[in-house]
Design goal:
Shape: globular
Radius of gyration: 27 Å
Strand order of the largest sheet: 13-12-1-5-3-19-20
Number of helices: 18
Strand content: 15-25%
Largest sheet: 7 strands, antiparallel
Helix content: 25-40%
CATH superfamily of one domain: nicotinate phosphoribosyltransferase
CATH class of one domain: Alpha Beta
CATH architecture of one domain: Alpha-Beta Barrel
Length: about 500
């Protein structure tokens, strides 16, 4: 599926920060445009004060890179830009370079639906320095948001304990792009359907929905409205019962449910969208059971999130299906993931890779130098630890020490003998050509469930989750430490 083509019908090369283009021009001007480099995209903290993150957005990245090209209108716009003295910002020869440029990078990434953790690369880009640089902003834009929403959806679905979660967020989402991306990421994270019909069409997500309060209010009575809706949709009647009085609304739903049964049809259920959901759902359940509708479902909505759902579960609310909107698609309690994109290696004139490190007074902001990969060790289907190591290093079975990237006092020894291992970065592009076959969204969702199932419930709890061990292989940690001291000494000279 060509996502960008379907949504935008044109080039997205200018979907970037202006400083990416000024750097690209400066690379070209200084003769560095074609030098080879490696960049890593990663984040520094799990969102929502949680214990894990769920990767999403790779399909958008693939589509963006496949269609990465500066078209005539892009170049005309760039040629119109002026410096403060009135001279052109970009030389014509540079614009000609962009016109002829074809995407030629290698790209590796974790698959969508993979559980990931701070500091491990979600995407590794290797290729001409100028091209790698131009990918920074769009890749961050795509992956920051979809990964954040997929994680939120996974948390909400976990709180629902196997109940269906419906995504209702279109009207509250951050614009058209945010709504579509959120619907997609939510489904990957665990929701069972969306109210967003365009997302259903573009991505193949099941769509769901019945009626709103306006439907009820357009009739002279609630009962009349329910009867009319049952005539229109006898196979899928879920009645919204809280427009006027919730208890009376349940009574009216039961009455129409009996009329449906006389015609050989069954009422699917009711929806409660306001008030004390625990109280009203319990009363509604008792009323429907007594009336002979034990299989009718109760859908709840009303600014739900994982914490409210957990509370309602503790209260033993009689809710079967959860409709979640605003707090899911806007990632209400954390508006951004905070992923970054950092240079980690460049190839020198002798053709050798030189690792690069960014030094900071904050240890959390010191990147991991070199070209690396992440391996996940597991046993009997349960994840044990993740190790970030220099790509190309032979991983023989034996004992390894992993060191926390931020706190070197946190170390863990892993005896990898008899452990299963999975290399998390998969090849996606080689020399600008796609070599990865994207699974459909339903397989991605299954992959997410499989991945989440590898981790203990202690890692998934919402308050003070247990920290899953992720660390640098000892020689990589030593390399980073050596480079940090070297750069500090160099800058002091």
């Amino acid at each position: 599926m060509k996502i960008t083509k379907d949504l935008y019908q044109g080039s997205l090369a200018l979907l970037t920060d202006f400083y990416q283009l000024t750097m690209a021009y400066a690379y070209w001007k200084s003769g560095k445009a074609e030098e080879e480099a490696v960049f890593n995209l990663f984040f520094r903290k799990n969102p929502f004060q949680g214990g894990y993150t769920l990767a999403a957005g790779l399909d958008y990245v693939i589509d963006y890179c496949k269609n990465f090209k500066f078209d005539t209108e892009d170049l005309a716009y760039l040629s119109s830009m002026k410096n403060t003295d009135g001279s052109p910002t970009f030389e014509n020869d540079f614009l000609d370079y962009l016109k002829e440029m074809e995407f030629s990078c290698d790209l590796e990434a974790v698959e969508e639906g993979t559980v990931v953790f701070p500091h491990m690369p979600l995407v590794k880009v290797k290729g001409p320095l100028l091209q790698c640089q131009l990918l920074e902003t769009p890749l961050l834009n795509i992956l920051n948001f979809q990964t954040l929403i997929a994680t939120k959806a996974a948390r909400i679905s976990y709180a629902a304990q196997g109940d269906s979660v419906l995504e209702f967020g279109l009207r509250r989402a951050q614009g058209i792009d945010g709504a579509l991306a959120a619907s997609r990421a939510s489904y990957i994270g665990g929701t069972s359907s969306t109210s967003n019909v365009m997302a259903g069409k573009l991505f193949g997500i099941p769509v769901s929905g019945t009626h709103a309060h306006s439907w009820i209010m357009s009739f002279s009575s609630e009962l009349e409205a329910f009867k009319a809706y049952a005539d229109a949709f006898p196979e899928k009647c879920i009645f919204l019962v809280d427009t006027y009085d919730t208890i009376n609304g349940v009574k009216n739903a039961i009455e129409v449910g009996k009329l449906l049964r006389e015609k050989g049809k069954e009422m699917v259920g009711i929806r409660i969208d306001s008030g004390d959901l625990a109280y009203y759902s319990t009363i509604a359940r008792a009323m429907m059971d007594e009336a002979g509708f034990p299989n009718a479902k109760i859908v709840a909505s009303n600014d739900l999130d994982e914490h409210i759902i957990t509370s309602l579960k503790i209260q033993e609310a009689s809710i079967d299906i959860w409709g979640v909107g605003t707090k899911l698609v806007t990632a209400y309690d954390q508006p951004a993931l905070g992923a970054v994109y950092k240079l980690s290696a460049v190839k020198n004139r002798e053709g050798e890779w030189e690792p690069k490190v960014k030094v900071s007074q904050q240890s959390i902001k010191i990147n991991i130098p070199g070209i690396h990969q992440t391996v996940r060790y597991s046993k009997n289907g349960k994840a044990i630890a993740d190790m970030i190591y220099l790509d190309g290093k032979a991983l023989d079975d034996g004992q390894y020490t992993i060191i926390d990237p931020v706190d070197p006092t946190k170390r863990k020894k892993i005896n990898t003998l008899d452990l299963d291992k999975e290399f998390l970065l998969k090849p996606i592009f080689r020399k600008g050509k796609v070599i990865y076959v994207s699974p459909d969204i339903h397989h991605i969702k299954k992959n997410a469930q499989r991945n989440l199932g590898q981790f203990d419930k202690a890692h998934k709890r919402f308050v003070n989750p247990h920290i899953y061990p992720v660390g640098l292989e000892e020689s990589l940690y030593d390399l980073r430490t050596e480079l940090v001291f070297k750069m500090k000494d160099y800058e002091r000279e």
